[in-house]
TrEMBL record:
The keyword Signal applies. It comes from Croceibacter atlanticus (strain ATCC BAA-628 / JCM 21780 / CIP 108009 / IAM 15332 / KCTC 12090 / HTCC2559). This is Uncharacterized protein. Keywords: Signal. Residues 1-21 form the signal peptide.
Amino acid sequence: MKHLFKIALACLLIVTTTACSSDDSNDEVAGSGSVSFNVQTTSSRNATVISRINEFTTTEENATFPYNLSYDDVPFPANTVIQLTYTDFDDTEVDPNGEENNNPFEVALTISVDGNVVKMTSFTVTPDDTTDPSISFSL
């Protein structure tokens, strides 16, 4: 009877330990795929576009629009964060006739993973706006 009790206790301990242990690790790769960033704007203002996948950041100063940046075979660790930010740093816009124009304008930000749009939004930016339109997506 004592022997049966020890076996039952050992089985219970193994089941409890296995059930309570976690297979999750922040270093584990959940998969991989392509990531694309797109920024469109209705103005020709000077701007910076910042794209980020976890700790990897790309900063494009004086970006030309529409702006497109793609990465293939990106590893996706658990809790991957993908972010796209538009920063306007021009005080005035110059229209095609060379005239200054301080009208509000639209910015559209899009993040795609494996060709599928996962986050998209548009913003109206005014010349005196101090916020930087940004979107992020977590896998």
